[in-house]
Fold:
Amino acid sequence: MNIGYFIGHFPYVDLVDKEDYDKEYAHGGTEIAAYNLAVNMMKKGHDVDVFTASINSKDSVENSRGMIIHRYATNLKIASANLSLKLMYKPLDEDVEIVHAHYNIPLPDLSASRYAKKKHLPFIITYHADAQESGGNFIRNTATAFYNKYILDKVLSNADIIIATSKSYIDESKYLGNYRDKVRVVPNGINLEDFEIGLSNEECRSELGLPQDKKIILFFGNIVAYKGPDVLLKAFEIVKNSYPDVVLLFAGRGGMQRELEDLSQEKGISDKVIFAGFIDEELKPLYYHCADIFCLPSVTLAEAFGIVNLEAMACELPVVSSKLGGIPDIVQNGRNGILVEPGNIESLADALLTLLEDDELRKRMSSEGKNMSEDYDWNKIAEETEKIYDELLERC
Structure:
């Protein structure tokens, strides 16, 4: 079959490791998930067309190992979202058999809905997260609020099937509850083989120039407000006072790094906090394997799934994360990690100390997490999605 994917941003494979790439073109869990799903669908022999906004004001068409990526010129950028008006009508020049939108920012979902309606095709939308109406500038927040109030319902009503990435998020979302009858749960996934590197914790630390004699708490991802890196830094101050032989490692890039550096100086813990900055993709597994504990302390529903939790589990790390969105589907409290209330600094510190002080608990949770991660291989996720496509095509 020929599948058409509609998404706000789709990774530029040749640019994604460029240091300032994320400032020009948003690159997070939604984009990574969409890319991996598309790649795995091609592996299954399907044709894939992707319709998305360009990084700049130029149109382009790429052939990426057989995947055709139609990038339409950006006319407007609101906060981190590149918006292209051509995305609303230019895809109609192309023909696909099934329409699948990835939603976490407005517009591509509306384009996909319009395309499917005009061409009388099955329409699926993967609902990655509610578009948050706060946390950005006035224009961004106002535009999002308008879209949520007047447009989103029409798009969701037109969808034949809505895919939620976790069961928990259906209840957490402000909008999915009205569509339970057509919501299916298909999680995001990971490529397990990417994290099987055959190096020990000590060897990874040696490669990265990290201390061998300290426990390492790892945060991996964009250093942005909704992921709660400031909450983690404040909790770490408490942790360090009770357990001195520990360091906090931030691996990633983002607008909050300078603020966190200043905060660590102010609290007198800068010698215990490492900012690794931008991490090349090939080095990513080394950072997971060098750590003792992984922590994702997100504070808003913008974090609907948390792929990094799965990646950490695949690398046999116990996870401390927020009881938020779809995270509880992945991090099962007391089994492969510990869940805490979002933004609760004291509870986060207690959870981290519990794991630091109990080697056997860390080992047990690491093993449980590794076993669980095997259910989330992208090949399995693509198979589940393919069954939905087949079902809809049979209906038509």
Q: What stands out?
A: The chain has a mean pLDDT of 94. The radius of gyration is 21 Å.
